[in-house]
Structure formats: C-alpha cells, structure tokens
Write the structure tokens for this entry.
Amino acid sequence: MSRDAAPRARRSRLGGPLPHAFYDRPTEIVSRELLGAVLECTTVEGVTRGVIVETEAYLGPHDPACHAVAGLTSRTAHLFGPPGRSYVYLIYGMYWCFNAVTRERGHGSAVLVRAVSPTDGLELMRRRRPKVKRDRDLTNGPGKLCLAMGIVGAMSGASLRSGPIIIRTGSAVPDADVVVTPRIGITQAAEWPLRYLVRDDPYVSPTPASFARTSYTP
DNA sequence: CATTTGATGTTCT
DNA sequence: GAACATCAAATGC
C-alpha cells in the first residue's frame, strides 16, 4: 500500500480529559504532572486552549497559605472536594484564579494554575484583553489566564472532565525541564517550594531574582 | 531591566 | 479593619 493511501481514521489532535483518579493523589504530585497538560475553557464566545506551564500546590488546612485554613465557608466550599473539579475564587476584589481540586471531600487541597501557553483561540484571547501588547502577556499569570480564557466564578465546582473547563492530556514534560521554586505572592509559608514551572518557557510568570537560592530541578 | 504604587472589593477577624 | 494565591502603569536606572 502506498504511503499516500487513505489515512486511518483521524485521531483527535486533542487528548481526552484526564481521568478523575488523576487528581486523587498528593497535590505536589498533581502540580508537577499537570505541566504539559492542556487547559480548555468553552464559553458562548468560543473555545480557548493552552498548555499548562506553571502551577502551585496548596496543601490543605495545615498549609498556612491555603484557603482551607479558613475552614468550610461559602467561598471555600468547592475547595473541599471532591477531586477533579474546579475551585475558582476572586482575589483582590478584581481577578479570578483557577484551581484544580486534588483531594477527597473534606481535605481542602488544590493546584493553582498560574500560566498557560496558548494553543487555540488566540484571537478570542486578544479580543478579551485588548490592552495587552505582547501575546506572552495574555496568560502569564493566574488572573491573566482567567481573563483571556473567560474563566469566572460561576464555573467553580464544575467537573474538569465534562464542565466548561476541561483539563486534557498533553505531552509529558521531562524532569530536566521542570523548575521548582517557592510560591508567588504569599506571606505565609513563603519558603515552601511548591511552585512548578517549565524551564525557559516564555509564558511562565516572572520569577523573583531572590528565588535563585531556593529553586531546583526535581 | 527592576521596583513601586494605585486600583478594587470580598472575605474573614 | 486588615488581609488578600493580582495586574498594569509609572518611575528609576
């Protein structure tokens, strides 16, 4: 058969949703493994997608920087599980931040997605963020990516397999390309190395120079 | 490039 | 009343 023969049924270029069980593991592990996965958000305006290039782990009530320390409130309800759903919260009264809930009901642990590298819906992202000059500034921060992808609080609590926000399998990022640093923008437990990012990726949010001594490769 | 500052309003003490 | 898992613009090299 010539190599120009009719191609076999086209495999979707897109990976399927990550299995629910993927999230039901330690949050540090999920944070590391979400690098390279695809974040997708669908709204009436259209679909946007991007490869996850930066995450942070928030471990639960024993983590002073985690919202779970406040206990079960109306704000944190979705943080307390079950795993495999979104937890979207408002920060500084202005910006949404997106998390993937990782642990069983009642635990209160999640991965904050801090940056993605856009793959689909770039025009829609630009339309939603008309003042942004460089594409790399569309999604290189947790509030920015929610603005560009249309992620809002109403999406909190939805399944990440079938809801408006879906996390799909992507391509694995080797350990040599992963950098671990302290988390950004917190004061409690500020030294804990729980931020994961893809080395040299232009869509990663800026890393403070002071992190040089505490950054490493897994 | 790095650092500083104002915007903005919900949440929890 | 203080804190806040941020961003964009402005300033100073």
Residues 70, 73-75, 90-94, 209 of chain A lie near DNA strand B (CB under 10 Å from a C1'). Helices of chain A lie at 27-34, 122-128, 142-149. The first strand of chain A starts at residue 38 and ends at 43. The first helix of chain A runs from residue 27 to 34.
